[in-house]
Structures are given as structure tokens and as C-alpha cells.
Design a protein that fits this description.
By secondary structure, the chain is α+β, with helices and mostly antiparallel strands. The protein has helices at about 1-25, 35-60, and strands spanning about 65-70, 70-75, 75-80, 80-85.
């Protein structure tokens, strides 16, 4: 689900907004222009780049943290996690 929100949604959001606009224009009796596929693809790519940049700057754990991989304990998988490194 996280991948859908981080990758697929920014790519298709401009197209969804354009299709909503076309639907609204047709209901009002207006004529919709042809679909600008190139501009929609460029807008989706830019939005995806902004999303990846924001995730790189504001997401994740600090570089000093240590990653603890998933473990099997009593037949259940404990997910991996980041733990702070002791600075002592």
C-alpha cells in the first residue's frame, strides 16, 4: 500500500485530475480539448520526483541508526527495525 501511495499515485494524479476536469466540462455542455498525454506524463514525472525528493529529505531513520533485520522468534516473524546507536 505504501508503494502505491509513493509511486503510482504521483504518476497518475495529473491524469486523474485532467479526466475529472473533462468530465466536469462535458456535463456543463463544453467541449473538451484532446488529451495532452505528453504534458500529463511530464507532470506525473515531476510530481514523482518531488515525492522521492521529499521522502529522501524527510523520511527514514537518521544515518547513525543501526538496522536490525527481521527475526524469527517462537514461530513468528518480528519485523526489522532501526535502533539508535549508543554514542557512549
Amino acid at each position: 500500500m505504501k508503494q502505491l501511495a509513493e509511486i503510482a499515485l504521483p504518476l497518475v494524479l495529473p491524469t486523474l485530475l485532467y479526466l475529472a476536469y473533462v468530465s466536469y466540462a462535458r456535463r456543463r455542455g463544453g467541449e473538451a480539448p484532446p488529451v495532452p498525454w505528453i504534458w500529463l506524463a511530464i507532470a506525473g514525472g515531476v510530481l514523482l520526483a518531488v515525492t522521492f525528493g521529499a521522502l529522501a529529505l524527510f523520511g527514514g531513520a537518521p544515518p547513525s541508526d543501526t538496522y536490525q533485520p527481521p527475526k524469527l522468534i517462537n514461530g513468528t516473524v518480528q519485523p526489522g527495525e532501526f535502533s539508535p546507536t549508543n554514542a557512549n
